[in-house]
Amino acid sequence: MTELALELRDVRKSFGRSEIIRGANLQVPKGERFAIIGPNGAGKSTLFNLISGRFPLTSGDVLLNGESTLGLRPFEINRRGLSRSFQITNIFHRLSVYENLRCAVLWSLGYKYSFWHRLGGLKDAAERAEAVLEQIGLKRRRDVSAGLLTYAEQRALEIGITIAGGADVILLDEPTAGMSRSESDAAVELIRKVTVGKTLLMVEHDMSVVFGLADKIAVVVYGEVIACDTPTNIRANQKVQEAYLGGHAPVEA
Ligand SMILES: Nc1ncnc2c1ncn2[C@@H]1O[C@H](COP(=O)(O)OP(=O)(O)OP(=O)(O)O)[C@@H](O)[C@H]1O
């Protein structure tokens, strides 16, 4: 049987009287790259917030590596091996690129920022931060304040921060939003490289990124996963074509 990294079982979420997530089910096998697509307001970011523990579920269950995460706080879910990035960049602008990464490593190890100064010599964290720096291609920019990086570099750093703790399950929220075609092609390569052997779940609107990167695509419409399949099958799926008004299935640019 396939081992699942992540499983959503009849997940529901209401805000006040509106039910936004309406019985979502999803199975993400270990080591696969999944894209979540769907119209604006379908509930994709809300699903991410439920999976990462930012919002409590109204009902249903989320399993990470076979274990329920119900009632766990975001940092506890993070310590169990799930790390997420945000649509809005989540970096410390006044710290250098390297310091941002070291901070992310230390945080994942359970250290609070207030202990920072006493941990400067922690060899493992420093080595890990250097390795991630290399992986994301920002070695040249090591000592630059993160706030001075270009937008694309900041998004790469953000991916570095997300993977720095060594989580096996990575959630990326619109990793190429606001990028030019060439920047987004480079981001796809970076994401592919840093997620080798890991499980990836990403929300993405850019169909060339989705079709270029995803093993499977989950389509969310009105808070339900209406289809989850390979890119080829999703393109041919009648229900998906109908959900994308006008009867056109999502296609690459
Ligand atoms: N904290 C909240 N309180 C109330 N309503 C919310 C909250 N968060 C999200 N919603 C509502 O839930 C619905 C789904 O929003 P969500 O951001 O998850 O959609 P999305 O699929 O990610 O959209 P987009 O593609 O535009 O980013 C929207 O109608 C939104 O207004």
The portion of residues assigned to helices is: 25-40%
β-sheet strand percentage: 15-25%
**Arithmetic mean of pLDDT:** 89
Radius of gyration from CA coordinates: 18 Å
The N- and C-terminal alpha carbons lie at a distance of: 36 Å
Q: What would CATH call the class of the largest domain?
A: Alpha Beta
- The CATH architecture classification of the largest domain is 3-Layer(aba) Sandwich
Task: Quickly describe the structure.
With 253 residues, the protein is of the alpha/beta class. The chain has helices spanning 44-51, 74-79, 97-109, 123-135, 151-164, 181-194, 207-213, 231-236, 238-243, and strands at residues 4-15, 18-29, 33-37, 59-64, 67-68, 82-84, 169-173, 199-203, 216-221, 224-229. The model has no long low-confidence stretch (mean pLDDT 89).
Main traits of this protein?
253 residues, alpha/beta, Rossmann fold, 6-stranded mixed beta sheet, 9 helices, binds adenosine-5'-triphosphate, ABC_AA/LPS_Transport, ATP-binding, ATP hydrolysis activity
